[in-house]
């Protein structure tokens, strides 16, 4: 049990010390938040709602990024450097190693959510009810699961360069067409039509509903769940194939 | 039987290329065994199968009479592998403590540090910032973290300078004195000779020799008697002397290759040949080793 705790702690520390994580998942969302709520916010009617809405967008954007990129690239790195093979001769089981990674990521997501929420409260005095803060935070935390699964899918790639390139592109496409950078309403209608089916939109929309005093739509929940299973299946299928090839 | 490693007719085929071909051997507790052979001889593949990282295509590998993948076996082994870099973003100290936490009765932290010769400053550094030699030392510390009974070292001294190499083998002697069983691969014959109780010589996926360094050396190294002829001597006549394996001439010296130098010298005097400047050459082990593996290749 001590081994598992130590492993979770080690995984968490490793993400915190990763400059990519600090830049993409903490700095960028906060900088974007300042730009889009302080600098360009001329003709928005309900300013308070927009500030809360965009805070949810940026928090989801942050969590998505660390789930896809930090996790995915790290898995590829560990494999190419021979580390994952080396772990297999220690008494720590593959499952415990993997679970520790997921727990480490989740702790980091929680940390990111708290930091970005705090930034929103300080920068724009965003005021939500305690229930809304809690529920939106929880929604984003749980909603990160399909993205973690997508991260493990990225993790099946052979080279670090490919993984970081591909995950970057996926991340940006998901963020933009899911309405995280700009509201969905101002997107071209074709992107809106595709966007509503993307996991990023469904993650964001749940939180956007919560801060408007509603509950997330059932569709948001079901689509995220569907993506979760899809990515888990795909990545375990590919991993099994890769192992069989040896 | 106190054999703690048993390989029984183990074969490993990669895409119809046989990397290891029907290899069988067993290793007893406390033995220090060198697996020796040229590149591509199947040394690493054999180590990987012993560690349970590769499954044999056929045959069976047993460690402590169990499958190497079992948790209770993993708790008793430690390994240093090739091409394993260190984990990033953690300090040396943190990695060592993390690894110690995996095992039920780890080696004390201070003892591990002493074994690897890492300094106090090194311990506080990020592992990925260490030099190549320091990373190897950390790798060695991780192999020993669980205070293992059985230690695997795959090419442990590659990339180490002479001083670190010496220190490393000194450490291995200490571990041996503690009764640890150590299996290492190398392609330096000299290392195997200095450290191992037993050498298993691999070539093309099979074992071509298995014995003590003295036995192996006797088989591998060819001694020779050389001299300068004062009048012409028939090479044919020399070849017919007992114990003579080969005769050749190089830079005015005649070399008589033999497995028994005393007998050859006696025979030379008996024949009252007009010769001078007699020398006995031990024959270089490395050369002989190379020659032997090449010969097998030609077969």
UniProtKB/TrEMBL annotation, chain A:
Localization (cell): Membrane
Domain of life: Bacteria
InterPro entries for this protein: ABC2_TM, ABC2_TM_bact-type, ABC_2_transport, Nod_factor_ABC_transporter
GO cellular component: ATP-binding cassette (ABC) transporter complex
Topological relation to the membrane, as annotated: Multi-pass membrane protein
PROSITE patterns per UniProt: ABC_TM2
Record keyword Membrane present: yes
Coiled coil segments of this chain: none
Keyword terms, alphabetized: Membrane, Transmembrane, Transmembrane helix
Annotated GO MF terms: ABC-type transporter activity
Family matches, as Pfam families: ABC2_membrane_3
UniProt domain ABC transmembrane type-2: residue ranges: 20-242
Ranges that cross the membrane: 21-40, 52-76, 97-123, 135-157, 169-191, 218-238
Name of this chain's protein: ABC transporter permease
